[in-house]
Amino acid sequence: MRRGDIYLVNFGKKYNSEFGKVRPALVIQNDIANRNIDKVAFKGVTLLPMTTNITGGSVRVFIEKRDALLQDSEVCINEICTLDKSRIRIEKRLTALTEAEMNEVSIKLKQHLSL
Prior knowledge:
It is a single chain. The chain is α+β, with helices and mostly antiparallel strands. The protein has a single domain, classed as SH3 type barrels. Helix content is 17%, strand content 30%. Strands 1, 2, 3, 4, 5, 6 and 7 form a 7-stranded antiparallel sheet that branches. The mean pLDDT is 95.
């Protein structure tokens, strides 16, 4: 698992405005933490959920379908979350973002968090 990879993630039951169900999500956690996740007690992975409800805007990054990502989707920058590694279907990576796509995610994430 690496920063920029997309996997299916079980977000569980939808609660109010939170994302729910199994859906693609982008790993945004740093690769040092990703490499060492099995060596630590807390196995949380920081993710950005994705949606096929394409709306655009300053908190979305469009990702065209490719590899095992079967539909055009958007990364939802404003829905950053940390979930246990057990919720990630780690056995099959759907795709990975390009450097340009990751740069757009980083820029929009910094804007969203006022960094």
